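TA notes, week 10

Several of you asked for a full example with nothing omitted. So below is the full record: structure tokens for the whole chain, then the designed sequence directly under it. When grading your own attempts, check the secondary structure regions first.
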């Protein structure tokens, strides 16, 4: 079976249980109108919904430190042959909330499209140089095998030089386009209140233009459904957050 639209995610270790994959899959199903395949590269597919295709994460010979500092395994997505998958792919990190229609995220004509997570993401008036974030990106599968081949040929040098896989990708992949800022807002930057109000007022819900909501660092999405204080001082919040709890439980999360 071949498809020209593929949603990709990755799961390894125990930080993100199968719930994250299933909730993401169900939310994508509700927000993509055209046919697509949903594929998770993982070391454990236990508990996945029936409609989720899964394959092992391609072996890049990574050491334990490469899994903990930077998501270097993401470079395997650029394999010349990724399990025979063909077409345009939209990669989504598991700690991402689907907020709206996703079809036009496949339609950008640029070969590679990502999130600008630099100063402009927090404040668009900064007019700073874009900084690639790889929490969400679109690309054509098999179009950039040199990215992986070059890394494998001199892995230690690139890890020392760039520290994070997204810095390596930004430097090596060639021209990058970026989605509008309001398509992929940040929970930390755009929905939380000032730290003096965080514990008193619940975070805002995503705006009407948002396609996805990005979480990075603390808190993690699951923290927002628990009756606990979350975040990192001085930006602390208190759960549960109703709009997120409705999303998570509405898509069958536990």
């Amino acid at each position: 079976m071949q498809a020209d639209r593929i949603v990709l995610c990755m799961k390894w270790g125990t930080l993100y249980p199968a719930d994250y994959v299933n909730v993401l899959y169900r939310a994508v199903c509700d927000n993509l109108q055209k046919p697509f395949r949903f594929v998770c590269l993982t070391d454990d597919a236990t508990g996945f919904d029936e409609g989720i295709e899964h394959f092992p994460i391609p072996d890049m010979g990574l050491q334990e430190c490469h899994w903990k500092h930077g998501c270097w395994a993401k470079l395997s997505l650029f394999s010349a042959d990724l399990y025979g998958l063909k077409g345009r792919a939209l990669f989504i990190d598991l700690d991402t909330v689907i907020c709206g229609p996703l079809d036009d995220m496949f339609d950008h004509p640029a070969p590679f499209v990502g999130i600008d997570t630099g100063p402009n993401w927090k404040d668009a008036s900064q007019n700073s140089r874009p900084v690639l974030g790889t929490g969400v990106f679109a690309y054509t599968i098999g179009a950039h095998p040199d990215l992986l081949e070059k890394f494998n040929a001199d892995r230690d040098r690139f890890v020392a030089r760039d520290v994070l896989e997204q810095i390596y990708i930004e430097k090596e992949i060639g021209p990058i386009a970026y989605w509008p800022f309001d398509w992929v807002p940040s929970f930390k930057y755009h929905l939380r209140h000032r730290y003096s109000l965080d514990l008193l007022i619940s975070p805002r819900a995503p705006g009407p233009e948002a396609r996805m909501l990005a979480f990075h660092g603390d808190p993690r999405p699951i923290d927002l459904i628990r009756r606990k204080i979350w975040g990192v001082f001085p930006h602390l919040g208190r759960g549960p957050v109703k709009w997120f709890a409705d999303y998570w439980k509405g898509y069958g999360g536990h």
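DSSP finds eight helices and eleven strands in the chain. Use that as a sanity check on your answer.
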